Amino acid sequence: MAFLYLTEQGSSLRREGQRLVVVKEKTELLDIPASKVESVLVFGNVQVTTQALHLLLELGVELALLTSHGRLLGQLTSPATKNVVLREAQHSRRSDPAFTLSLAQSIVSGKLLNGLELIREFTHNHSETDLKAESGRMVALCSEVPRQVDLSSLLGIEGAGAHTYFQGFAKMLRHGFRFTGRQRRPSPDPVNALLSLGYTMVYNEILSLLDGIGFDPYLGFYHQSRYGHATLASDLLEEFRSPLVDRLTLGVVNNRVFGELDFYLHSGSGDMYLKDAAIKRYFAEYEHFVTRPVKTADPDREWSCRQLFRRQAERLKEALTGSAPYRPYRFCW
Predict the structure, then answer these.
(1) Residue 145 DSSP class
(2) How far apart are CA 327 and CA 333, in angstroms?
(3) Where does residue 127 rank: exposed (0-12), middle (13-18), buried (19+ CB within 10 A)?
C-alpha cells in the first residue's frame, strides 16, 4: 500500500472513477488506483477536490493536511473505524495509576535502550569515536527506570537519558554539521531541522494508525494531556526515535545526501527548514527507510518500521484489554 506525499505547490488531487490523479496546469503528475493508497499527506498549497475526498472516505484512507514545512494542521478520518469498546478500555486503564506507571516505564525503557543500542551500533562501525562515557551513563539510567515510583521521577530519568544520548549523537555527525544539542521551536540548525521533520512524520503516521484502529490518540499514558496534542501517538513514537529518525538523520548527513545549502533559515520564526527541492528528496529517503526490512528479536520474519508501528499499536491494544503486558520495540542491528 502506498503513502502519497503531495508536495508540488499549485497542484490538485482529483478523482477519476476509482483512481486518484494529481494534476498541475493541465499536466498529469500522477495516476494511481485509490485501492492501493493507504494514506495521503498534503503539504502546503495543494488542492483536493470534494470528489477525491469522498473516495478517500469511502475507502477509509486517511488524509493529513500539513504546512509546506511538515507541521500537522489536521486530518480527515472515516467514521467507520471507531472502536468504542477499545476507547472505554483505554479510558479505564488511564485512570489506573499502577497500570499507567507500568506502561510509562515500558515506554521510557524502550526509548533509552534503543538509544543505547544506536550508540553501540555506531561504536562498532566507528571505533575511533569514543562514546564510552555516554554508553555507561545510558546503562546506568536504564537500570533506574523500574525503580521510579511516579511519572514525575520517570520524566527526570528520561530527560537525563535524552541529554546524555544527544551528547553522544553530536559525536556521530560528520562533515562539519553543527549540533550542540536537541532544540525545537525553533530548530536552529540543519540537524535539528531534520530531527524535527522526521519525528513529525512518524508522529503523523502513528496518529493516523491509532485513530484508524479505534484508539483515542489524544489520551496518552506517559505524556501528559494538553490541548491539541495526540499524546498516545507521542507515547508510541518514543521507541522509534533512535532506530528510525535518528539513524535516518545520521545517514543523510554522513552520506552527504544533504548539505548546508539545502536548508534556509526562516527570518520570522528562527526555524531552519529544507528547501522545496530538498524536502522532496527527504520524503524519498524517509519512505525507503520506513519500508525497508529491519532486524527485530523475532527471527522468523522481517518487519519494516511501518509494519512495526502497527505491531506496537496491536501490542498496546492487548495491554489495554488485559491480554498481555506491553512490550516495547527493541532495536537490533
Answers:
(1) G
(2) 19
(3) exposed
- Reduced DSSP (H G I as helix, E B as strand, rest coil) percent helix, strand, coil of the chain, to 5: 55, 15, 30
Burial 258-278 (b: 16+ CB within 10 A, else e): beeebbeeeeeeebbbbeeeb
- Residues 97, 221: Cα–Cα separation, whole Å: 10
User: How close are the terminal C-alpha atoms of the chain, in Å?
Assistant: 26
Tell whether the torsion through CA atoms of 290, 155, 74 and 236 is positive or negative: positive
Q: Model confidence at 3, in pLDDT bands (50, 70, 90)?
A: confident
Which pTM value belongs to this model?
A: 0.88
Cell numbers for 33, please give them.
488506483
Helices (H), ranges, 214-329: 231-237, 247-254, 276-291, 305-320
| Contact (Cβ atoms closer than 8 angstroms) between residue 41 and residue 66 | yes
CB burial class (10 A; 0-12, 13-18, 19+) of residue 147? exposed
Q: 315: which residues sit within 8 A by CB, 6+ positions away?
A: 324, 326, 327
Q: Determine whether 176 is exposed, middle or buried from the number of CB atoms within 10 Å of its CB (0-12, 13-18, 19+).
A: exposed
Question: In sequence order, which residues have a C-beta less than 8 Å from that of residue 213 and are 6 or more positions away?
Answer: 81, 83, 86, 313, 314, 317
Q: What is the DSSP string of 192-209?
A: HHHHHHHHHHHHHHHHHH
User: Residue 287: left if φ>0, alpha if ψ -120 to 50, beta else—which one?
Assistant: alpha
CB atoms within 10 A of CB 107: 26
Q: pLDDT tens digits, residue range 118-139?
A: 999 999 999 999 999 999 999 9
